[in-house]
Design goal:
Elements: H1 2-16, H2 20-73, E1 93-96, E2 99-100, E3 103-104, E4 107-112, E5 127-135, E6 142-150, E7 168-180, E8 185-187, E9 190-191, E10 204-214, E11 220-231, E12 248-249, H3 250-255, H4 258-262, H5 266-278, E13 283-284, H6 290-303, H7 307-311
Antiparallel strand pairs: 1-4, 1-9, 2-3, 4-5, 5-6, 6-7, 7-8, 7-10, 10-11, 12-13
Helix pairs in contact: 5-6
């Protein structure tokens, strides 16, 4: 009788619930599983954030390159007129080969008719634009700055002081080099106020930009190297025509009705740019060059101007 009662009591306990030890073991196992799941989610979040950060950094670099390219394409240079002192002539194109904080960080000052503008601003005005770098927060790290100001009355070759925030941080490299078709090579620096390169523009500018980004653990890594060659279509306006003899400089011709070209739409200006690019830097015979005849026809259609008459004026 007694044995039967004890057996019945043990069966009731098993049906009534878990022991304290069983509950503690279950809680411990659940905690381990939750901790493992949390760590996995945390790691995935870090990887995702790092990927978004890297993509964002690449996008920032691309936007900076777009801005530099647009302003370089709009570069203008007027050679020093006779009987004018160099210091009284504000036009220049000066690029310097620099190393800052152990990294390549070049600088450039130039005059452009295509400065960056907000969508609501349509006026095109000449501007002095300078790109330069300063030391970043870490070793071998740079910050890229852009400074814009109105065209001064006199020559100003010195880089402006850096009182504003950089347009791009965590820069690994900012490099500029200059293609010179006349010498058949590429130069690390350019100075249109020097005797060697007096009142000349390079044929094109090679721009390189590279940024740092971060791994999920916070370690710094070097991003992709972006490279662009930016042709400078407009040759110095009103320069020496000695090399052309009796022929005419294309860009000297176009400069005589530059105001009318400014009124064209973006598509029309692009068409002019393409035509100019096909015969950039060349002298031509106003009466017999078929490329120039095509350009004249396009100008006449787009602007209503008789370019043939304008271009043949001496």
């Amino acid at each position: 009788m007694t044995t039967a009662k004890h057996s019945h009591s043990r069966s009731d306990r098993r049906r009534g619930g878990f022991t304290l030890l069983e509950i503690l073991v279950a809680v411990a196992v659940m905690s381990l599983l939750l901790f493992a799941a949390f760590r996995s989610l945390q790691q995935l979040s870090r990887v995702r954030e790092a990927g978004l950060s890297s993509a964002g950094r690449e996008r920032i670099a691309q936007l900076a390159m777009d801005r530099i390219e647009r302003e370089l394409v709009g570069t203008l240079l007027i050679p020093l007129p006779e009987k004018i002192e160099r210091t009284e002539h504000p036009w220049l194109f000066v690029g310097t080969d620099n190393v800052v904080s152990g990294a390549e960080g070049d600088s450039l000052i130039f005059v452009t008719e295509s400065p960056a503008r907000a969508a609501s601003q349509t006026a095109q005005e000449l501007r002095y634009v300078a790109y330069q770098v300063s030391a970043g927060d870490e070793a071998d790290e740079l910050a890229l700055h852009r400074t814009e100001r109105v065209l001064p009355d006199k020559l100003e070759k010195d880089l402006p002081s850096l009182n504003d925030s950089p347009i791009v941080k965590d820069v690994a490299l900012f490099s500029l080099s200059y293609v010179d078709d006349k010498s058949g090579g590429t130069l690390p620096a350019w100075d249109s106020t020097s005797e060697e390169l007096k009142d000349r523009l390079p044929t094109a500018v090679d721009v390189k930009l590279q940024l740092y980004s971060r791994k999920p653990d916070g370690a710094r890594i070097t991003g992709a190297l972006l490279q662009r060659r930016v042709p400078l279509f407009v040759r110095p306006i009103g320069g020496d025509k000695g090399e052309c003899g009796e022929k005419v400089s294309l860009d000297d011709c176009l400069s005589r009705f530059q105001e009318s070209l400014q009124a064209l739409s973006a598509e029309e200006q692009q068409a002019i740019t393409v035509l100019k690019g096909q015969i950039q830097g060349k002298c031509y015979d106003p009466d017999n060059d078929p490329q120039v005849q095509a350009l004249r026809a396009a100008l006449r259609e787009l602007t209503g101007l008789d370019a043939a008459e304008v271009c043949t004026q001496q």
